[in-house]
Amino acid sequence: MSQRKKKERDFHNLSTPMNITFNLIAGIFAILCVFPFLFVVIISLTDEGTLAKNGYRLIPEQWSLGAYRYVFEMGDTLLRSYGVTIFVTVVGTIISLLFMSFYAYAISRKSFRYRNFFSFFAFFTMLFNGGLVPTYIIVTQFMGLKDTIWALILPLAVNAFYIMILRTFYATSVPEAIIESGKIDGAGEFRIFIKLVPPLSLPGLATIGLFSTLGYWNDWFNALLYIDNPNLVPLQSMLMRIETSLQFILQNAQNSSLGLEAMRSIPQDTSRMAMVVLATLPIIFAYPFFQRYFIQGLTIGAVKE
Amino acid sequence: MKMVGEFFRNIFKNRMMLLMVLPGALWFLFFSYLPMLGTVIAFKEYRFDRDGFWASIVNSKWVGWQNFKFLFSTNDAFIITRNTLLYNIVFIFLGLVFSVLLAVILSEITNKRLSKIYQTGMFLPYFLSWVIVGYFTFSFLSSDRGLLNGLFNSLGIPPVQWYSESKYWPLILVLVYLWKAVGYNSVVYLASIMGIDRSLYEAAMIDGASKIQQIRAITLPLLKPIITIMTLLAIGKIFYADFGLFYQVPRNSGTLYGVTNVIDTYVYRGLKTTGEIGMSAAAGLYQSVVGFTLVMASNYIVRKYDKDNALF
Fold this sequence. Notes:
The structure holds two protein chains of two kinds. Helix content of chain A is 77%, strand content 0%. Chain A is an all-alpha fold. Chain B has helices at residues 2-13, 15-38, 53-59, 66-73, 76-108, 112-123, 130-141, 147-155, 169-194, 198-206, 211-236, 243-248, 257-260, 263-272, 277-305; strands spanning 44-45, 61-62. At the A-B interface, helix 2, helix 5, helix 6, helix 7 and helix 11 of A face helix 2, helix 3, helix 5, helix 6 and helix 7 of B. Chain B: It is found in: Cell membrane.
């Protein structure tokens, strides 16, 4: 019986040599995608002395946990940056979900008189933007956000594309009839939104929430633009800064004895790679569980009203 | 008078909804529309005034098209436009070929569990920031410790100073881009392959079509709409480069600017490093205007081709 079933499946599917080829291609590409991360993990577990002698190797001569010990002893910067990133990610995601879901819900409702105007108001920003220089000048000189935590949160809070996805989602998954019945029961618009809408649109909200979370966690650009205060440097940006200051010191090392002194305060190669690993680990553990939402995001975005 | 009354009655009637759009609308006002007005900076010699933002804008000297003249009289304008366009064209083309190929391969693999595992692996780069990817690249290309030079050393090939030899960078940037983008895009294409009616394949099999014939006659033609749309959307954005790729991966190395400088990095450096605010604003406006034209044009083409999939 099982013999026959197997034969049947073979008939319907790929021939064995082709199946093997396909598996090889997909498998090799998948390994290539993961390999750099594994390699950085290996470097971070290499003994610093061996590294200076042999360079980065796939199988180090001597393993060591020294880098991680160093990172945890010098923990201040890393911990602070972790704190900044977590705060920005949590607060940012909440704010952006509130702003965007309110906006999207309102423009999805046919009873809203100004829905076309506000749809266009959001949509036009996808077509044209003022560019970096005016944005920078307005954020720093008009809003005065330079070197505040809000410079890391607000610029990413709203995204017209996500609003369009959410609007489509509300328009298709929240039937007008439910809202009408809520109204007949005497609930106001806001109450309806709070009580009835979230359960119906949870998958859409989850998708957008995850895109937001990822955006905040991985953001370094806003810190590059707006943050000088070392206490407000998020994780990704901290990793960048170590690199830049290292290059600066290397260039000036010959000129001064100060260079050598400063050199010691900068984490060594292994420790920097350990920080990269520690900054990436949460994502590595989380994303396999959430990946379907990221695929879903594109498929619901493709559906138009 | 009556109309005014009507207007306020309508506002009152829609007050709840208006309240709901308020935070988002304010955000768009401050982060999108004010910067659009701020593009006048491109026509000014911008000086920061102590009386604040409005005073700075008003008091800065009006210079007309001078910033643009300066920009286009240098070689930079040509280099950044060329780099932005060429890289994006290569990215769009190779990205499409590899993503679709991989999606077809993933969809045909017999063992669905294995296929899921491959997908999870390929998806990883999408979730990493360019800073992290920059570190990854460095672990391969570092001139004294990197994996590649180590390999060269053991093969007796002289080591390469990767971060100062610009001739390798077009290839490196394309490879890094593909590494980061192909997995994610192929999973998106895979989702639409999975949406294809299975009975089409069964019918083809009864007619004795081979797997390759099925792919050519069913899968690819049915993917054509989404391929067209994704490509046209990408063409609409062809004037915008991925800042992270061109800034983080080459580690901002000055000797590489000839092949790594794109419009976005040029604007950034003008603003933050060299302080040529007027010229940098001019480059930004040039990007926005051409970008806008391209989005409109590509959308017009999508509309003609397939109305349902047009952006607007």
